[in-house]
Amino acid sequence: MPQSWIYDEQAFHAPTRVILAFIDFMKLLSVLLLLVLPFAFAQRGRRGGGAPQAAEAGAGGGGGLYSGLRFRALGPAISSGRITSIAVQPANISTYFIGVASGGVWKTVNGGITFAPVFDNEGSYSIGHVAVDAKNPSTVWVGTGENNSQRSVSYGDGVYRSDDSGRTWRNVGLKQSEHIGRVLIHPSDSNTVFVAAQGPLWGPGGDRGLFKTTDGGKTWKNVLNISADTGVTDVAVSPHQKNVMLAASWQRRRHVYTLLNGGPESALYKSRDGGETWAKVRGMPGEELGRIGITFSEAQPCLAYARVEAANRQSGIYRSTDCGESWERRSTWASLPMYYGQIIADPKDANRIYMGDTIAQISEDGGRTLRAVGDRSKHVDTHTFWINPRDTAHLRTGCDGGLYESFDRGQTWQFKANIPTLQFYDVTVDNATPFYNVYGGTQDNWSIGGPARTRNGNGITNQDWFVTNGGDGFHSRVDPSDPNIVYATLQYGVLVRFDRRTGERVGIQPTEGKGEPPLRFNWDSPIVISPHNPARIYFAANKLFRSDDRGGAWRAISPDLSRQLDRDKLPVMGRIWPPDAVAKHQSTSFFGNIVALSESPKKEGLLYAGTDDGLIQITENGGGAWRKVDKFEGVPEQTFVARLLASQHNDTTVYAVFNNHKNADFKPYLMKSADRGATWKSITGDLPASGPTWAIAEDHLNPNLLFAGTEYGVFFTLDGGLKWERLRGGLPTIAVRDIAIQKRENDLVLGTFGRGIYVLDDYSALRAIKPETLEQESVLFTSKPARIYMEAQPLGGRGKSNQGEGFFTADNPPTGAVFTYYLKESYRTRRQTRVEAEKMAVREKAEFPYPSKEQLSGEEDEEAPAIILTVTNAAGKVVRRINGPASRGVQRVNWNLRTPAAIVAAPRPGSEGDDEGFSFAPSGHFVKPGMYSVSLAKRVNGVTTAIGNIHRRSQTARRSAAHR
Which DSSP symbol is given to 456? Predict the structure, then answer.
């Protein structure tokens, strides 16, 4: 690069300015350490805590216009989300797969020391069952869609098959099944597979029944078709008589207001001809049945067990000794079949069976008596077991807290603390300095908080997280005047005020007055801190409550704001059901309550409350008077109001998110009012037609920049909702249930339901994008001030240090300055251009000139295109040049605030992974804090040309408060 170009300011179009903020004593520390350890603090990527991220490597690449904006996974893995299935290779039990209810499929090849997600880019993230072919262990089947009837169940898109042990997948059908209970590979024929397809939970129809393929999934036949309301939940084949099979049908339906977990069409069936024909069996209760789980014993021919849900106290454990012809009720044990359905027989002991439950059960006398398996130091809510067929004291189990392993039949358990699949309902951030914290509530794994980044070279570990409240966690809010005060909720309105300094939790839930009817709190009750007074809190049941002393005292400021419907008089599956229907209303929130809440930041006392039965109620005087809106054009009546957001830009704008998936309606619904809720219009725009909406966020500087969380990812719009774009970088297929924006850092924080928390660090480049921006050859966006500090090493080394590969770490963002730029097109070599032209000619059936030898030789010698970012100090002196991706779209690179290394790094000895936490690449010294500039150039065919736009910005160095 010619020196004249470096200093020619017009040539590189007035570079973007970068300022380094710093800590006085950290500056001194860096000087001292650099004198002693000149190479010790190289900025290098870490393994195992997310995608490797070299400090000066671009995070972008192909895959979309915004692929360079990469989400960073925070985890945590202090607990994991619900695991529904464990599939182990029979000949190599160290290799196995787990199916997560709403977190995809994960694989280990080393007995659980490490796990990797293998299903991130498929059409569903919700897993019902995983099966490994015993004859061909590289063949893996996945039935998508969790098969429980719990409040928060996701749905799938059919059956997948992999023939390379999970590296690649293909959908092989039954795409409308939504919930799959079992994939059964026939033990004698790998091409014969049965799928127990339960079908939709929230509506009729779909792919329901027992489906059979004899050609490996190319075609399917419904061999047990019951009705539009009833599917098949389980299927089993006798290990001793391969043509003898059992299958269980299950009639069920859930809506916002109820669950019916059984009906007259639930039954147990038997086939004697390999699943071609079926007949109901004798010996089941005469009452209406619910869910039935079945298993055959390998230890005794013709022995079968069933866990049966039935009305009028006829549930229990049933046993058959004649291959399912007749059944004996062995015990009256009942659990919550809407949530637990499996029964597993010990492969060596005919009398030993295991049942998932809140407290997992074991029977060692054929189901006559039961006892707890043992949950010492283990999470409860067990769903599945794997039993080692060669050593039946060796168990693996999946529960709401993740994956556990025992070698003494459940007396003690080892937790696999490296599977970040927590299910977050809600997420928020604080304003702590220098780094903020993230808080959220999770399904059955508490309300928790943790740092968005740390000063440690180890990244973010499980030990950095802490619990603020127990139970199922939901909304958390942080006092804006004191980040140590956190409000956290658990189910049915249990609210605490948590003090981080002392760990004290004070219960502050409001209660009904003397003689008043009980309050109806939702499972997920909303809370907001008034933006006008940090001591003022609003909290909602069916009425809205206000406290002006941080929860010390409450007063109701509204009447009952719901429709006050009687849910017992609402039809389900076409009729009204009696009170003794199977599990009626079980595990269902009270109906008729407030589920969404917002106060205008621009006008005190302007409050919006949304209900679970489709109302938005508005007060403009702090609850003195309320007006009701009950119809929204294009939104079905009584649709659940998932979120409300009053605009921070004016006092007339408010946004509403509706979610109607519990009526089998998967459309997105986003609405906006510009007149305080008097009228509403849709801003759903071109969001995918199938993908319910969960959350919305508004940029604090640009009112037209909005973010939407949906069942399948996060989207943003630059025009207020006409056109939406999906942000994919580093984010798997997952539901985004809530969104928070950390305004100081311009960070976008996502709470996902099954993959923990993700952060898009500094999304401000999106704010600067306009249609004309995308027509420029390139744009270099303004960078924010950078902090300079040494990363600490509390574990003695970087990354996992010496804690072993199973030690969970999540990546911090790279230290230093981040540069974001946009390229309209990818820069290509002459060979790439020629090959593309040849492919086009073949497609168009046209002639193309054959390249000469000179052309081909020139292509071999051609230098690959590159983007060069040049950093100069205030005096115009070059301090660093960094290469970046030359691919189309928004890209990012990082400068670690160091000068180039004095020596070139030697090749690393050995294979990948050798002492990475303790090996150091050469690096230069830190630059002095101050004002720096960065310019953009392209190098194509060996020629360097300045590119970029004009950006001028005057900044003042900010001081970090890391050690205040």
Answer: B
Q: Which residue in 496, 493, 488, 487 sits closest to 519, CA to CA?
A: 493
Residue 840 has a pLDDT of: 86
For residues 851 and 289, what is the distance between their CA atoms, to the nearest angstrom?
74
CA distances from 39 to 35, 788, 926 (A): 10, 17, 11
Write out pLDDT tens, residues 38-95. Answer: 222 233 333 333 332 333 333 333 358 999 999 999 999 999 999 999 999 999 999 9
- Indicate left, alpha or beta for 409 from its phi (over 0: left) and psi (-120 to 50: alpha): left
Nearest alpha carbon to residue 708 among 769, 664, 660, 642: 642
Give the residue, 9 or 194, on which the prediction is more confident: 194
Residue-wise pLDDT for 191-204, tens only, equals 999 999 999 999 99
Going by pLDDT thresholds of 50, 70 and 90, the confidence category of residue 123 is very high
Q: Which pLDDT value is given to residue 23?
A: 36
Q: Cα–Cα distance between 653 and 368 in angstroms, integer?
A: 63
Helix (H) or strand (E) holding 405: strand 402-406
The three state secondary structure string of 368-392 is CCCEECCCCCCCCCEEEEEECCCCC
Give CA 898 to chain center in angstroms: 36
Residues 902 and 923: their CA atoms lie apart, in Å, by 7
- The span from the CA of 717 to the CA of 722, in Å, is 7
Question: What counts of helices (H) and strands (E) characterise the chain?
Answer: 5, 69
pLDDT band at residue 841 under the 50/70/90 scheme? confident
Residue 403's SS3 state is strand
Which residues, listed in sequence order, are joined to residue 185 by a DSSP beta bridge?
Answer: 193
DSSP-based three-state secondary structure for 833 = helix
Question: For residue 525, what are the CA distances in angstroms to 203, 435, 466, 492?
Answer: 26, 29, 22, 7
C-alpha to C-alpha distance for 802 and 140, rounded to whole angstroms: 34
- Cα torsion angle, 481, 482, 483, 485, sign: negative
Of 45, 132, 125, the closest CA to residue 96 belongs to 132
Supply the DSSP symbol for 612: T
Mean pLDDT value of segment 420-442: 97
Q: Phi, psi at residue 552, to the nearest 5°?
A: -65, -40
CA 771, distance to chain mean position in Å, is 31
- Express each pLDDT in 393-420 by its tens digit: 999 999 999 999 999 999 999 999 999 9
Nearest Cα residue to 296 out of 358, 249, 343: 343
- CA dist 613 → 436, 490, 636, 638 (Å): 36, 21, 11, 5
| pTM of the predicted structure, to 2 decimals | 0.92
The percent of residues above 90 in pLDDT, for the chain, comes to 85
Pairing outcome for strands 713-717 and 466-469: unpaired
Q: How far apart, in whole angstroms, are the C-alpha atoms of residue 252 and residue 233?
A: 11
CB atoms within 10 A of CB 567: 17
Answer for the pair 108, 100: CB distance below 8 angstroms, yes or no.
no
- Which of 505-519, 645-659, 740-754, 820-834 has the lowest average pLDDT? 820-834
- Distance between CA atoms of residues 588 and 597, nearest Å: 21
**Is the backbone of residue 633 left (phi > 0), alpha (psi -120 to 50) or beta?**
beta
- The SS3 call for residue 432 is coil
Q: Which amino acid is at 610?
A: G
Bridge partners for 355 per DSSP: 343, 361
* Amino acid at position 964, single letter: R
Write the CB contacts of 646 (distance below 8 Å, at least 6 apart in sequence). 598, 599, 600, 601, 602, 606, 608, 653, 654, 655
